[in-house]
Design goal:
Blueprint (H helix, E strand, L loop, with lengths): L9 H17 L8 H24 L2 H26 L8 H26 L11 H31 L4
């Protein structure tokens, strides 16, 4: 599926939910007088979705991959702070929320990694690098591969009908 806007990307949607839930949790009484910790946790959580969005808008695959890794780093930062909160008695009443947030941050990290891996194995350099000639070359290559696959499928189908082994 081709996404036209970063708001359509599933990992961005997960990251926005992560930020929303972090902001909700840090509004809890346990965070009173813990301003720096709450602020850093909020900024790291917001950084995940912001880096996905910024990379998406950059127009090149290399820049998108770089920003995806920044986003992944921020997801790790969120998890690290949540691990600290788990170990502090002050946040004992938030253990369930903290656990859920850790899982969501980890999910974002896995999604980002999978997307980055996919992009790094792609021949497309990004929208910024596409012109009419590169688009046509890419489309021709894709059509040729689809045709070759169709031929292979037909050949295997005929072999199967005749009982021949490949």
């Amino acid at each position: 599926m081709k996404y036209e806007r970063f708001e359509q990307v599933p990992v961005w949607q997960s990251a926005i939910e992560l930020a929303r839930l972090v902001f909700a949790m840090t509004a809890e009484r346990a965070f009173a007088w813990q301003g720096d910790l709450a602020n850093q946790l909020q900024r790291a959580a917001l950084s995940v979705s912001n880096n996905v969005a910024e990379g998406f808008e950059r127009g090149s695959t290399n820049e998108l991959v770089a920003f995806l890794y920044y986003a992944r780093g921020s997801a790790g930062e969120v998890r690290s702070m949540l691990c600290l909160l788990e170990r502090m008695e002050r946040f004992g009443n938030l253990k369930s929320q903290i656990s859920d947030l850790k899982l969501l941050a980890e999910s974002c990290s896995r999604q980002i990694r999978a997307w980055a891996d996919h992009l790094q194995n792609s021949e497309i350099k990004g929208q910024r690098h596409l012109n009419e000639q590169t688009r046509e070359t890419f489309d021709q290559t894709r059509r040729a591969e689809a045709f070759r696959q169709k031929l292979r499928d037909m050949t295997e189908g005929r072999r199967a009908e005749s009982g021949e082994k490949s």
